[in-house]
């Protein structure tokens, strides 16, 4: 069998016509009582949300730097720990890369998840992000680097934005309605 058109249905030079335009669209459904009672999201909450997203992306900086600078990390480790064998140094650097990657994935996932919940007005997410930032600030006492310091400062900015007066009013209103 061939795929050629039947003689009575010759090829059409034009595609089929689009559907006729709709003269009247139905109105949008009314807002529910819950939706109507919600205040608009303040700019502070939106900026805080995007700051959390940026912080989640930034959390991948450490593993990327470790991977791209692996040889330098190995060289510096061998110089600072001459008693370690080459195999021990390689294993240690591989472990550091793996651990930092897992931590970055966990931190990024938590920041994004709680960031979305915070943007939706969930006070528990705002509190959780505050606790995560406090833990990050405490970790600076054990491992101070410019990357961890910058990450903590960005998180502190996001936390401050979440507690400004407009943001507080938004979270209070969400609790009353929800």
TrEMBL record:
Keywords: Membrane, Transmembrane, Transmembrane helix. Residues 1-33 are annotated as: Disordered. This is Integral membrane protein. The chain crosses the membrane at residues 49-68, 89-114, 134-164. Residues 8-30 have a biased composition (Pro residues). It comes from Streptoalloteichus tenebrarius (strain ATCC 17920 / DSM 40477 / JCM 4838 / CBS 697.72 / NBRC 16177 / NCIMB 11028 / NRRL B-12390 / A12253. 1 / ISP 5477).
């Amino acid at each position: 069998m061939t795929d050629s058109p039947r003689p009575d249905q010759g090829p059409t030079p034009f595609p089929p016509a689009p559907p006729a335009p709709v003269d009247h669209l139905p109105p949008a459904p009314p807002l529910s009582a819950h939706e109507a009672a919600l205040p608009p999201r303040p700019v502070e909450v939106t900026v805080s949300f995007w700051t959390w997203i940026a912080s989640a992306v930034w959390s991948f900086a450490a593993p990327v730097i470790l991977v791209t600078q692996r040889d330098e990390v190995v060289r510096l480790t061998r110089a600072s720990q001459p008693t370690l064998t080459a195999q021990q140094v390689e294993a240690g650097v591989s472990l550091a890369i793996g651990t930092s990657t897992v931590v970055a994935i966990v931190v990024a996932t938590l920041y994004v998840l709680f960031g979305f919940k915070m943007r939706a007005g969930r006070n528990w997410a705002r509190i959780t992000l505050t606790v995560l930032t406090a833990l990050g600030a405490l970790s600076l006492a054990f491992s101070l680097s410019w990357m961890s310091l910058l990450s903590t400062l960005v998180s502190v900015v996001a936390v401050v934005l979440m507690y400004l007066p407009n943001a507080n009013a938004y979270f209070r209103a969400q609790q009353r309605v929800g």
